[in-house]
Amino acid sequence: MPALTEGSIFKALVKLSIPLILTNILQTAYNLTDTFWVGRLGSISVAAVSLAFPIVFIIVSLGSGMAIAGSILVAKRQGAKDTAAVAHISTQTFFSVLTISVILAVAGYILTPYLVRIMHVTPEVYREAVAYLKITFTGLPPLFIYLTFQSLMRSIGKVKLPFYIVLSTVLLNLALDPLFIFGWNGIIPASGVKGAAIATVGTQILSALTGLIVLFRGEQGLKIRLSDYRPDFKLIKELFKLGMPVSIEQVSRALGIFMMVLLVTHFDTMVLASYGIGSRILSFIIIPAFGLAMATSTLVGQNIGARAYDRVKKTLQLSLKIAFGVLIFIGFLLFVFAKEVAAFFIPTDPVAIHESAVFIKTLSVSFGFLGVLIVLMGAFRGAGKTKISMILALLSVWLLRFPLAYYLGYHTSLKQFGIWISYPVTNILTALAGLVLLIKYKWFEGVE
Fold first, then answer.
1. What's the CA gap between 21 and 19, in Å, rounded?
2. Which structural domain, as residue segments, surrounds residue 64?
3. Most-buried pick from 14, 70, 238, 401 (CB within 10 A)?
4. Which alpha helices (H) appear in 39-159, and where do they start and end?
5. In terms of domains, do 254 and 188 share one?
6. What is the C-alpha radius of gyration for the chain, rounded to an integer number of angstroms?
7. Is the domain of 225 the same as that of 270?
8. Which residues pair with 188 in a beta bridge?
9. Are residues 295 and 187 in the same domain?
């Protein structure tokens, strides 16, 4: 097993972060593959999938908190070298998440027509979105099984195997998408947008089966035991207590993204295009920070479990410095080359290039603080302080960014630039608030 409670903290962070960063990049590639092949069907199919994505994301966010809660408790018990507790918590987490996923899958399948109807789309988009979502919801249980496997493996420091599994599914999805979407030689019927959902569910099932085999065999240091399947309601209550703030945090972020898009859509197409480009760049830039945050969460959890509080403090200091330094450097490069980056996406529209460059430059000045915030939230989660992480997310999205963007964008002469400004202001203020909370709650010095 990886020794995360001793040895070089820097090496441990690197060994954990790199596979996690690569895994996140691959998961982004997974979504891009679907978008690429569905895009060959036309705008109606693209609209249907685009409409389905936020709905699925919110549903998954509701149920993923339990998996993360289980990983928090497992990391602490792993740090304390309590293998019996690790097995028990892993088993209870697995069966709890599986139960929740089945409930969400059934509810999602039944409610799909009503969820799509709320969006007020055309009949053509409605039909394709409903068909796509119903198939997608049937794949929720295997998706949650794999997410739980991935979270639990990360909590014990095993991050390479999940990376290899994701790599395999991305390559498989790349091949399956066109086969099921367009058909093949009369053997596989052309299913259109439903084919994309079938290919996705198929790869999710394979990922889940692989994860299950690994967990039941126990050869990777983590074992699910059927003898532990009987519900431990005291532990399940603790999982809910830890997991509910995580779910609220993730749902609030998903809804926040949706609300920001609504704000921007009231401006012209050029502004919407500029926002889309800036958002894509932002989503890609923060991948390293999220990888580092997950690594920090694992290290913090295990070292708190081992009561190695000095290592917890050193881990935090090092992670925050790395996050701030790396993202400040990336932000500097983007600030300097903002026009060139914007022109890569929209080479023939000078006005859109200019506005996109303004948004990119505005975003880039606070990347260092954004890195600090993301790592802080990972550290709080690793320590089991999920309520603090939730508070920071709610503060960032609903108390700062959205109200500020609405006021500056709609009630001042700044217009869209007011919306752009809301991002760096929010990132800086929330990062500072997180640092204040970190200093106030001195669990990293032994006070839990």
1. 5
2. 26-231
3. 70
4. 43-79, 83-117, 123-138, 140-155
5. no
6. 22
7. no
8. 184
9. no
Helix, strand, coil shares, percent, the chain, to 5: 85, 0, 15
Q: Residue 118 and residue 51: Cα distance in Å, rounded?
A: 11
315: in domain: yes
CA nearest neighbour of 140 among 186, 101, 195, 191: 101
Over residues 404-435, the pLDDT tens digits come to 999 999 999 999 999 999 999 999 999 999 99
Could you give the CA distance from residue 143 to residue 148 in angstroms, rounded to a whole number?
A: 9
| Angstrom distance (rounded) from CA 261 to CA 255 | 10
Type of residue at 56: V
Beta partners for 184?
Answer: 188
What is the total count of domains within the chain? 2
C-alpha span between 51 and 49 (Å, rounded): 5
Two tokens, residue 212? 């299950």
Stretch 89-115: mean pLDDT, rounded? 93
For residues 206 and 308, state if they share a domain.
Answer: no
**pTM of this structure:** 0.88
Residue carrying structure tokens 């394709």: 128
Rounded Cα gap, residues 108 and 141, in angstroms: 12
Length in residues, the chain: 448
The answer to the question of residue 14 being in a domain is no
